[in-house]
UniProtKB/TrEMBL annotation:
Enzyme superclass (EC): transferase
Pathway of action: Cell wall biogenesis; peptidoglycan recycling; Amino-sugar metabolism; 1,6-anhydro-N-acetylmuramate degradation
Listed InterPro entries: Anhydro_N_Ac-Mur_kinase, ATPase_NBD
Organism of this sequence: Spirosoma liriopis
Protein name: Anhydro-N-acetylmuramic acid kinase
Gene from which this protein is expressed: anmK
Catalytic activity: 1,6-anhydro-N-acetyl-beta-muramate + ATP + H2O = N-acetyl-D-muramate 6-phosphate + ADP + H(+)
GO MF annotation, one: kinase activity
UniProt keyword Nuclease, yes or no: no
Ligand binding (ATP): 25-32
Family affiliation: Belongs to the anhydro-N-acetylmuramic acid kinase family.
Its job: Catalyzes the specific phosphorylation of 1,6-anhydro-N-acetylmuramic acid (anhMurNAc) with the simultaneous cleavage of the 1,6-anhydro ring, generating MurNAc-6-P. Is required for the utilization of anhMurNAc either imported from the medium or derived from its own cell wall murein, and thus plays a role in cell wall recycling.
SUPFAM superfamilies: Actin-like ATPase domain
Length: 400
């Protein structure tokens, strides 16, 4: 037997694994690196987050990604070059963090890498009958494995599509394993570039849980912070807080069939982007809004669509006493969280930190949990429903 297969087999049989989860999301703010100690699998999964860092990307790198990110027409050579480049960069950032944490790469069992999404195209978005749901993440795992010397699982989304999903959201699996609690109806709300939530019913029934995107989280706020403030984001929602919501623009922004489509569903910055806002401004004749009013309206747009989706699941599931636990960078924006809480006065609000997982780290932890499940679990049935196939994800890269 190849010794590397033996090594993988030994890792799969360990009572506890040390897994580094990596997430580089649609905000392009940096690489989230979560070092996890994981015991068990499925609903007995127990995660301790030992270390966490977000390593910010420099402006040059962000600009490189933006040349190909969420665009229909790109420089294909640049895409090809960025694939190994991102893999090597992520590998190097892991080594730097391990050095800071005084941990040897040989002490890590597995790296679980999401990569960088460069294009997301569910059928509902691309509308080409003959093509399936599609999504593309780059930053090949072979480069991470070769550079760090650690077996790497990567490219988690393709299997989800192969078994009938849209390749996202994958949070359903990790949220169910980590955060489901008998006797409490929970909504795990993540506000990254795109917002999504997971519904965890109080009876713990895996065949009812799902995660759905709700639409924009921070993606439009960040795009306009770059334009209006020359900043990566509107820190603490300060510009938005100084403006007034424009109802005409808000209504125009909300007229998109995505918002009333059935759960679960996914979207991305391929749809919710500056041209989307400009088109709504044109339709509502609100092109000359002051910067603060535009930002206030965009925050309300995210809040309304998030709250509308949560309200729908509360009503459909006839949920009593729902608890919402927030995560992702949007939880740091008080204008956004304040607006959501105002729209959902019957919900109790907290953050995933209250449940033991730092909300900034949650998505990176998810990939560690998915890798753990592929190695040592795989027995939980989600009933093979539309959008939530029972599935093990991730491709294996050996260091040599
Ligand atoms: N203090 C703050 N005030 C306002 N917004 C903030 C603050 N801190 C973080 N954010 C927002 O959070 C964003 C980063 O969020 P996060 O890291 O969760 O996104 P992501 O993982 O890239 O997204 P996705 O989940 O869509 O892949 C920033 O770009 C910014 O919009
Ligand atoms: C294609 C893609 O990268 N989707 C991301 C994105 O960021 C948030 C939202 O859109 C979510 O659907 C997903 O990521 C999380 C980790 C998920 O799959 O659950």
């Amino acid at each position: 037997m190849n010794q590397q297969i033996q090594h993988l087999y030994d890792i799969a049989r360990k009572p506890e694994r040390r897994i580094i989860g990596l997430m580089s999301g649609t905000s392009l703010d940096g690489l989230d690196i979560a070092l996890c100690r994981i015991k068990g699998s499925g609903s007995t999964t127990a995660v301790v987050l030992e270390q966490f860092a977000t390593v910010p990307y420099d402006d040059d790198f962000k600009a490189e990604i933006r040349t190909i990110f969420a665009k229909r027409d790109i420089n294909f050579e640049r895409l090809c070059l960025l694939n190994p480049y991102i893999g090597r960069l992520h590998g190097q950032l892991i080594l730097d963090c391990l050095h800071t944490w005084a941990i040897e790469p040989s002490e890590i069992d597995v790296v679980a890498s999401h990569g960088q999404t460069v294009y997301h195209a569910p059928k509902s978005q691309h509308r080409h009958d003959k093509f399936p749901n599609a999504t593309l993440q780059i930053g090949d795992g072979d480069h991470i494995a070769a550079l760090t010397g650690v077996i790497t699982l990567s490219d988690f989304r393709q299997k989800h599509i192969a078994l009938g999903g849209e390749g996202a959201p994958l949070a359903v699996y990790g949220d169910y394993f980590m955060f489901s609690k008998a006797g409490q109806n929970r909504i795990l709300l993540n506000m990254g570039g795109i917002a999504n939530f997971t519904y965890l019913p109080a009876d713990g029934d895996a065949s009812k849980v799902f995660t759905t995107d709700t639409g924009p989280g921070n993606t439009l706020l960040d795009a306009y912070a770059r334009r209006l403030l020359n900043q990566p984001y509107d820190a603490d929602g300060r510009l938005a807080a100084s403006g007034q919501v424009n109802e005409l623009l808000l209504d125009a922004l909300k007229t998109n069939p995505f918002f009333n489509a059935p759960f679960p569903k996914t979207t991305g910055p391929e749809v919710f982007n500056v041209p989307y806002v400009e088109e709504a401004q044109q339709r509502s004749r609100t092109r000359d809004l002051p910067a603060a009013n535009l930002m206030a309206t965009l925050v309300q747009f995210s809040a309304d669509t998030i709250a509308h989706a949560i309200r729908r699941v509360i009503n459909e599931a006839e949920m009593s006493n729902p608890h919402v636990y927030m995560s992702g960078g949007g939880m740091h924006n008080p204008v956004l969280t304040g607006a959501i809480q105002k729209l959902l006065p019957d919900c109790a609000f907290g953050v995933t930190n209250d449940l033991g997982i730092n909300g900034d780290a949650k998505e990176a932890v998810l990939f560690a949990v998915l890798a753990n499940e592929s190695l040592a679990g795989g027995t939980t049935s989600f009933g093979n429903r539309q959008g939530v196939p029972t599935v093990s994800m991730g491709k294996v890269s050996f260091p040599k």
